[in-house]
Amino acid sequence: MxxxxxxxxLELFFDLVFVLAVTQVVAIFExxxxxxxxxxxxxxxxxxxxxxxxxxxxxxxxxxxxxxxRLTLLAAMAGLxxxxxxxxxxxxxxxxxxxxxxLAVRYTAALVYFLGVRESxxxxxxxxxxxxxxxxxxxxxxxxGLVDDPARTVLWLASIAVDLVAAALAGxxxxxxxxxHFAERHGLFVIIALGESIIxxxxxxxxxxxxxxxxxxxxxxxxxxxxxxxxxxxxxAPAAERKLDALVGKQRGRFARDFYTILHFPIVLGIVLFxxxxxxxxxxxxxxxxxxxxxxxxxxxxxxxxxxxxxxHHATTRLPLDRLVAVLVIAAAALAxxxxxxxxxxxxxxxxxxxxxxxxxxxxxxxx
Length: 368
What we know:
- 81% of the residues lie in helices and 0% in strands.
- It is mostly helical.
- The model has no long low-confidence stretch (mean pLDDT 92).
């Protein structure tokens, strides 16, 4: 316990359930194309994110080498499959199923963590700043699953608010965080989200006529996905891991909470929204993007760029203005290309994002 290490193969296997979860949430966005649908999808994604995060904090301390931990993770996967399977009817007939599965897997992670810190007074004290409050949201989600909308939505929003309060209070503790493992695990979840965008791009081309325009849309959408990958793994991720590794005491846990647990959610949500937009771009490259399609590509790429800009500033004290300017240009370009084919909008977004990353890299080289 407490030793830095790489993610285990069991943790990679565990993540496969979240591949299904992200796919299910993307389907919610695609089916609704509305503000209400976006809120509902984001809430469900947040529930999965908090669950994954709690298990990541747990295994960061306990590891996965012991038989009880391994069996517990496998059992939790079964519960997560039930949870993911309930997503399509989460706001209709499967609310109770979702709430029950959510409570079971969240409480399982909490119990394993609590038992794992028995021999470390410092880690146990840190956990107790968080755990009592973290026990409340699953109960609220279960209660929400037992009532109809809009009460269900209100209760599920309340559960997320309590989770944020619990995370804020956790900053009072002095957490041990194995930097390499923690950074790698969060990078792997970003890969899951990016993988969903690649699937969305490829699946959208199936069963449609093969044309040069469609091929161009597929390539340009992939270029944007690759640029988002680059913006995370080439700049922000290494800087954040170095920062986490260098910090000690309470500052280490607070940085892990702020950059990874909190700031990674809008990154993941942004990539998921881009996946929704990319499906429309590839499927109908010659048609103007729908209002929701423009919303998805602008908000999706902007969430990633802004979140990483904030993260880079948090890790290095530098403010990557190129990314923030890119967000403004993308929003303006989406308005200016409302009547243009979706392919044109995608090309503009790709050029702007790449230009921002090139400018940032040149400035970093000069500074260094």
